[in-house]
Amino acid sequence: MKTVLTIAGSDSSGGAGIQADLKTMTELGTFGMSAITAITAQNTCGVNAVLALPCDMISAQIDAVCDDIFPDAVKIGMLANSQIVECVAASIKKNAMKNIVLDPVMVSTSGHRLLDDDASDALINVLMPLADIITPNIPEAECLAGMKIASKADMIKAAGIIAGSFDGAVLIKGGHLANTGANCIEDSTNVAADLLYHGGQTQWFEAEFVDNPNTHGTGCTLSSAIASELAKGADMPEAVRKAKAYLTGAIKAGLNLGKGRGPLNHAWQNTISDC
Length: 275
Ligand SMILES: Nc1ncnc2c1ncn2[C@@H]1O[C@H](COP(=O)(O)OP(=O)(O)O)[C@@H](O)[C@H]1O
Ligand SMILES: Cc1ncc(COP(=O)(O)O)c(N)n1
Description:
The protein is α/β, with parallel strands linked by helices.
């Protein structure tokens, strides 16, 4: 069985972070392992508290995994501060890890900062160069590219700027532009459109925009799904295509848990075949 390591924060409500990552990996037929960077007390309504773990404990988790079950792919999510960004980068180099998917988590959907303001430079200069793909959402891509993004044309320009600073692929997730009219295609169907910039080529990945407020953990799920597909041997465009199909199914299947922006239904493939 192929193995995937997630290096990310814990979400007590189970919708995002490590918990979403492990559910995704299991559903996609890979063996999920974890190195926890921070513990959050959060639910579907918001983040109440964050405890960043000490760097030596984070490195120790990564080393313990790599010394025994070397991962076929790695997903990196919430890193909390610049010290953690640096220690995760050092562990990745030391263990010569491959198939690195970096989700540059900065702010939760509920508006809570999950990465210190002053950690962006370390993320860009120290960690990004080690990634095979980076998966920013629109606000994260705006920060990384240093420009506002209000249209598909802006997404293409920003992806080129971000890709110019490292060798990997860039997937700008368009969820924050969907339903604003900015990314409507000609037939005016509203779509959740993500842009992959890979090897100098751009490619759109479009899926139905699901009218469902329960989207807590969509970014975590997509990046873990890409890591799982890379671990199983897909090339980058195929990994993104399969990951997006899994994500869209999980949003569509809906669970309606919690009082706020609820989690996805990770087991949607089983649910459908049970009916
Ligand atoms: N309501 C929705 N229906 C379908 N896909 C969605 C919806 N909301 C977000 N997505 C997709 O989920 C993924 C992550 O969403 P996005 O909101 O852009 O990033 P993040 O979760 O990191 O903020 C992207 O593939 C995006 O297109
Ligand atoms: C531990 C952790 N990691 C990542 C996210 C981002 O997920 P979302 O954008 O859905 O809030 C989160 N809320 N918590």
